Structure formats: structure tokens, C-alpha cells
Amino acid sequence: MNHRIMIFDTTLRDGEQSPGCSMNLKEKIEVAKCLERLHVDVIEAGFAISSPGDFESVQTIASTVKEASVASLARANEHDIDVAWDAVKHAANPRIHLFLATSPLHMEYKLKKTPEQILEMAEAMTRHAAKYTSNVEFSAEDATRSDWDFLVRVTDAVIRAGATTVNLPDTVGYTTPEEMRALIEYVRANVPDSDKVVFSVHCHNDLGLATANSLAGVAGGARQIECTINGLGERSGNTALEEVIMAMHTRPGVWDYETNIDTTQIARASRTVYTIIGQSAPLNKPIVGRNAFAHESGIHQHGVLANKQTYEILTPESVGVQTNNLVLGKHSGKHAVDDRLKTLGYQLTPEELQSVFEEFKRLCDKKKKVKDADLEAMVEHRSIRQEQMDVEGYELDWFSVHTSNFTTATCTVRLKKGEETFEDVALGDGPIDAAYSAVDKIIQPPEHTFGIWNIHSVSEGKDTLGEVTVRLYANGKTYSGKGLSTDVIEASIQAYINAVNTFCAAVRKAEARKEKTA
Ligand code: KIV
Ligand code: ZN
């Protein structure tokens, strides 16, 4: 058997559809760029039928991505498949990914169909998809709780109908490594033309077994792994790309397979995805957590100083983490900043560099030592700021807050919009509440629910940059905004204004669309 494993990334579909992880178009494009730098084989860009926004993002990513195949998910019905094709058809290598459940539970209670009807649908809909492209993936949803002989019949039918990849997902994270390997082996052994297609695994992490199950599926003959950056995905997530890749990379004697992944891009991709969803990696997260390469205890430090391999099975550099953390400061020039960014893997245009450098200089007025993590946060936020500037709206001019543990917090805020300025003051249950109430008095956003306010420190130290994410919910959609500052109240206000601007712009757009069609 060939030893090449295809990496199918579904951060933008399975990852994005999970609570708290929704992304807007620009954010999805940022993630797609990371996936291209990683050299994944397939990018599942979304579920085109699920909303006009999803359709637009699948279509945009399909026409942007140069090398990877771009897939859209579709249920097994003609309309879904037609829309999926419409969204991906301009990709260099488009893929239609259709799915249909095959487990008794799903067939009876969710789909209300008999196994014979499911078999017919699977075959007919795969045939429909294959009219558009030869790059068709069929997923037997809940495969690991399906009858194995039924799976053999379905797999046989979809191969005959034109599927070129057959995915046997562990949809509810229920299986074990032994079972997963045996399942793939069984289906391969019993389907006559099984050598004509690529078998795929798509494992959820409900029991913390997704990585082990994926690797076991590969041992059973699967040659595609479906995964996500940071393991995002429904419930407890999907197989984490960084884990399966680094497992194979670190133990080639056990998993003697090849992928096309550039492992040095892993840390950056992880950081970008966490920044976008407004979270940071749990400290102990494998490969990408802050402690993954930290050695605190005396015994460990002693061992690592004598020989790194005593407690390190993979190097930080292999996943793109720089350990020679150079500290820059107010005497560092543009050249030094550019140099450091290049070492960190960021290639900026002269205009981008100029704007990051200006931000760097402003930061140096507040913070003596600017670390790699600060620089990386500034670069990531530059593209988000750019996007926020594209949304016509309000900007923070200044704010003044008074808070103590025995009085009610008060905040005065002055905002700018074009040439105009607006000022208001509000009381609140703490400085953030007061500031947000003052902003509300000025902008008066339409009705919405305040969702998440999330803060994390970019690096260590009391003067660290605080990165704040705010999410608002309205009309079934999420609107997010971000702020970055050494002053966490300023970062919070920026994040809120950005979220409100995005929300108001979307409302204006929807109203304009309505007026046009009226
Ligand atoms: O978990 C699952 O079964 C899926 C399919 C749609 C592939 O996400
Ligand atoms: Zn899934």
C-alpha cells in the first residue's frame, strides 16, 4: 500500500459550526491561508447550502486557494449537491463531500428511512454528484455505530456510483482504536473495488480518542485523515491536525507514513485560529499549549540542560516555535522588527511592515520589552484591524473611567465617526459595563444579546498586551470584535465598538437588500 496520507482539514466546516467558533469571511480567508501554508491536501471550506454567508465563503475560498482541493459539504439530496457544486466549481480542484447516515439509530429516528432506502439514496446522490466532478467524497455518517455488512453494501454502491473517497466517520466519538482499525480493514476486505478509492477517517473526540482512532484507521488502510486546527469541532472536537501530524513525525518507526504538511507552520496556524475565536490554548494542550515545551521542575530542568531529549520528544522549532525569544525595545529600528518577523515566519509587504512598526513604536512607549508573542499578536491584529476599518463605523477617540471598590463605576467615552465626535457618560456594574453603556448611548445599536467577553494575556508579565474578544448575537448570527492593548479597559472598549460596528453594518446591508427587493 502507498504510505502517503492525505490531510483533509475541516476547521472551516466542522470546526466553525461548533458553538463559540463561528468566523466571518475575512477570518475564514485568514484560516484558509494558514492551511495553504501548512500544505493540507483538502480544505473543507464550509457547508454551502447552510446559509448565504456560508455559500459566499466557500465560493471565495474556492477561487482563492491555489493548490489544495476545496470541498463543500452537502446532504444527500440533489439541491444540496447542486449548491455545493455551484460554490466550489471554480476551485483548482473542487470536491463535493456528501454525507448520509447509515446507523440504525440515525436511519430510524433522524431520517425515518429503511436501510434499503438509504442504500438507494446513497447510490443515486453519489451518481448525481459524480455528474459534476470525479472528485466525490461520500461519508457514511455514524459509521462506527453502523452494521458493518450494511456499510460494505453502501460503500460498494457509492464506489460504483462514482465516489473516489469513502469516509467512515466516528461521528459521536464512540469507537476505540482496535475497532476503528478492524472496521476499515473489514470494509476494505469485503468491498470488491475498495482499492480504487481512498478510505478516510473522521473522528470526534468525545472520549479523548480521536487522534488514536485516526491513526488506528490509517493502520487499517485509511489514507485520508480528517482533522482540524487545535481540534476544534462539534462537542469535544475533531482529531487535532497538530497531534496526528506530530505523532507520525515523531514516531516514524510506528507510523511509517508521509504527509505533505509543513510542520513548522503548526504554531502559527494554531495561534491564528485561537486569536480568531477569541481563546487561547489550554496550557497543557499537546503540541500548541504554552507548557508543551516548558520545563519547570528542578529534575526536568536539570535533565533538559544536560540533554534536551531527556524530557523533549520533539523540538519547538519543528512546529515553528522560536526558542531564542529576542526582546525588542524602543531603540530597535524597522529593520530589526522586519528581521524578527521574518524569523517568526511573517513575510510582510512594505505597507504592512510600516503599520506594524508604527504600532510597535506606540507599544514601546508603554512597554519596555516587546517579545515575540507581542509582535505576533500585532501582526494578527493588523489584518483584523484592516477588516474593521473596512466596516464604516465608530472609532474610539478617548475614554476616562473612574472605578473603586466602594463607588459605582463611571465611564465617559468619546467616539469619532468621520469628522464628527460624540461623547457620553454612563454608570455601570464595573468599568467595562459602564464603558459599554456609554458606547450604547452613543451608537444605539439595534436589539441584540451580549454574548461573550473574553480576555487573555498575549505574553507574560504585568505589562502584557491584553487581547479582548467580544461576541454579540442577533438574528441567529454572531458578530465579533477584537481589541489589543496593554490597557485592558481600552482593549475591551475597542473590542465592543468593533463588534457593534460589524453588527450595525450587517443590519444596514440587510435593510438595503430588503429595500431593493421591495
Ligand atoms: O462527524 C461527522 O460524521 C461529520 C460528517 C458530516 C462527515 O462531520
Ligand atoms: Zn464531524
The main β sheet shows up as:
8 strands, parallel, barrel
Which class of secondary structure composition applies to the elements?
alpha/beta
Count of extended strands: 14
Name the shape in a single word.
globular
- CATH architecture assignment of the largest domain: Alpha-Beta Barrel
How many helices? The count is: 17
Account of the 3D structure:
With 518 residues, the protein is of the alpha/beta class. The protein folds into three domains: 6-277, Alpha-Beta Barrel (TIM Barrel); 334-388; 391-517, Alpha-isopropylmalate synthase LeuA, regulatory domain (Double Stranded RNA Binding Domain, 2-Layer Sandwich). 44% of the residues lie in helices and 18% in strands. It is built from 17 helices and 14 strands. It has helices at 11-15, 25-38, 52-64, 78-88, 104-111, 115-132, 148-161, 177-190, 210-219, 241-250, 266-277, 298-306, 334-343, 350-366, 372-390, 431-443, 488-517; strands spanning 6-9, 42-46, 69-75, 94-101, 136-141, 165-167, 198-202, 224-227, 395-402, 409-417, 420-428, 449-457, 466-474, 477-485. It has an eight-stranded parallel barrel with strand order 1-2-3-4-5-6-7-8, surrounded by seven helices. A three-stranded antiparallel beta sheet has the order 9-10-11. A three-stranded antiparallel beta sheet has the order 12-13-14. α3 (52-64) crosses α4 and α8 (177-190) runs parallel beside α9. The structure holds 3-methyl-2-oxobutanoic acid and zinc ion. Zinc ion is lined by residues 14, 169, 171, 202, 204, 233-234, 238.
